[in-house]
Amino acid sequence: MTPPPLQSVLPEGVHPFPHRHLLGIAELKPWEITWLLDQAEGWIEVNRGLRKRDDRLAGLTLINAFFENSTRTLLSFEIAGKRLGADVVNMTVAASSVKKGETLLDTALTLNAMHPDIIVIRHGESGAVQLIAEKVDCPVLNAGDGRHEHPTQALLDALTIRRRKGRIEGLTVAICGDILHSRVARSNFQLLGSLGAKVRAVAPPTLVGADVDRLGVDVYTDMDAGLDGADVVMMLRLQRERMSGAYVPSTREYFHFYGLTAARLAAAKPDVLVMHPGPMNRGVEIDTAVADDIARSAISEQVEMGVAVRMACLDVLTRRSRGVPGW
Ligand code: CP
């Protein structure tokens, strides 16, 4: 099978991806992001074919260590690894020695001693994935750490937008809901801003987060104003598992003021794209009629792009150890 096409224009003399790990969007240059998206583009047709197989990772071991629940990210990394021919091992944290009190670092050293070729980690604490990356001998991919970053989610979101809208630069993207607790929002603010989109954070005052100012986004606490003229509306889940107090009076009231309904969406552009990273809480942050509107909702496409993006990331991060020329 031929490798994915290389379409982006890289500045002369720069390496397309000089990083050992993928820990966050913050560390990536705009052309590295675009180049990764081009790599992912090449896997989409492979995934739509009958035989979804390319053995470039044959003989390599991928460990998925998820310390938090996941459906989309875990499954798509497993599928991506298998389609590339890797031996994929999913560590089930609930049945692991983490439950007997083993520390994160001891768990990392244990995984490292089994000589994996790449480790994908999700953890509830911001910075935990970076900590593990410093202790192991192989590339590490961040599958979401606390409120910090979820880089492959932002990449798959960008790929979805680029394919649907033909560009990212100049688009107005409203990211709405529980910004405070959202690593998806933080990665997307950085990625979309880096590629030239005008990004809005739309949330109740209690869920905006103190750090958004330095991320270069425009803050709106009124949903209708935040949606006005938007090309893309990305809804976020209320992350009640990360809330220690009452951030919203009730889910009913939250839906009334911040839920995405067809009536509210009328403020956006007529060809607005509706997105949600999942899992969705229908009737809390998004109305079912909007989520299932096949003309405007890209939610299933986001999941599809997730496999392509994760195949690209696994391929790129293992090129050095596989001895690919130039890496
Ligand atoms: N979007 C996302 O990270 O979903 P999961 O929690 O199901 O992986």
Describe this structure as you would to a colleague:
By secondary structure, the chain is an alpha/beta fold. The chain is built from 11 helices and 9 strands. The strands form 2 sheets. A 5-stranded parallel sheet has the order 7-6-5-8-9. A 4-stranded parallel sheet has the order 2-1-3-4. Helix 1 crosses helix 11, helix 5 crosses helix 6 (183-194) and helix 5 (151-165) crosses helix 11 (299-317). The longest helix is centred in the N-terminal third of the chain and has 19 residues, at 30-48. It is globular and about 55 Å long. The protein starts with 29 loop residues before the first helix and ends in a 10-residue tail after the last helix. The structure holds phosphoric acid mono(formamide)ester. Phosphoric acid mono(formamide)ester (CP) is lined by residues 70-73, 144, 153, 277-279. Phosphoric acid mono(formamide)ester binds at residues 70-73, 144, 153, 277-279.
